[in-house]
Amino acid sequence: MNKGKRKIRQRINEKRAIYSKKRRVNYLKIKASGVSITAEQKHAELLVKHSIHKKLPTTFSLRENIDETIEFINDLKLLYGTNERIYLNLKNVVKITNGTIALLLSVVNDFTANGQRIIGSRPKNKEARKILELSGFFKFMQGELEYESEISSNTIIEQGNKSIEPQVTAKIVRSAMKTVTGVEQRNKKLQGLFIELMANSINHGFPNEERKKWIVSTSHYQNTNCVSFSFIDNGVGILETLKQKIGRKIETIFKGKNDLLLSAYQGDIGSRTGLKFRGKGLPYIQDKINKNYISNLFILTNNVILDFKNQKYYEIKTAYSGTFYYFELNKNNDI
Known about the structure:
Blueprint: H1 3-33, H2 39-49, E1 52-55, E2 59-60, H3 66-77, E3 86-89, E4 95-96, H4 98-113, E5 118-120, H5 126-134, E6 155-160, H6 166-181, H7 188-204, E7 214-221, E8 226-233, H8 238-246, H9 257-266, H10 269-273, H11 281-290, E9 295-307, E10 312-330
Parallel strand pairs: 1-3, 2-4, 3-5
Antiparallel strand pairs: 6-7, 7-8, 8-10, 9-10
Helix pairs in contact: 6-7, 7-11
């Protein structure tokens, strides 16, 4: 067993000891009150007791608490392949966004595909609980839950492992257009964007064929005629892919990783490096924001954020292995 695995095992045992003590105290309180415990409650308690506990940050948001949120995701990923049941403790979450729910789900999918069971709790905060339940998040988790969850058409989560799924993109686009315009119709510009995102994700983001997967979260806001989209893959990330294509030494030509990534989206890596670089996918994505086909494009990959709404392009201290896109469609876009 290597040093990293030993540390994880030590942390698991320590947390289990603390949890067992807390459960014992709670059991004695219930026993003293005279309230009986049902067989289902005992079974649920045993499941929780014999799971690895992962407590989500109070604010689980890439916009408002990015480092702690990514640290949680990275820490969770370390448990992949341990064959342990995982308990996601969301009880103290007071703020959670649909995009971050999709990000969490992308990791949960890796675990469940590997045969690891995931169980969890709902937030005590009413607003956070409502967002989580209406997202339909729990229906994608395997294993037993403390609570049942509602499923609403307001937030739709789609997932796939093929480079292009026209039926999925058509359904997403037509539904979005109905919210924005009042009429269910096609939007070739938006559908083309989704196809490009899917193709980039599967063709370039995953060196391991078995774990290829993308996830789309779509949230509809009827009052403002707006739809927000989050697209996630847990591949190696765009920067790592670029380094493999153009070489790590070329990185020194740019002012930083944020400059390198922005250059890739602007399509001028070839002119700046003198190399033959034909990457057309990323410029195609930025072209959609330049032509006002979408709004508020936000990209996180590795340790760089490109925030096109606020024109801020910067590095962060905690790296994320994968790529996260957020953008919106509203009645002010050229649709």
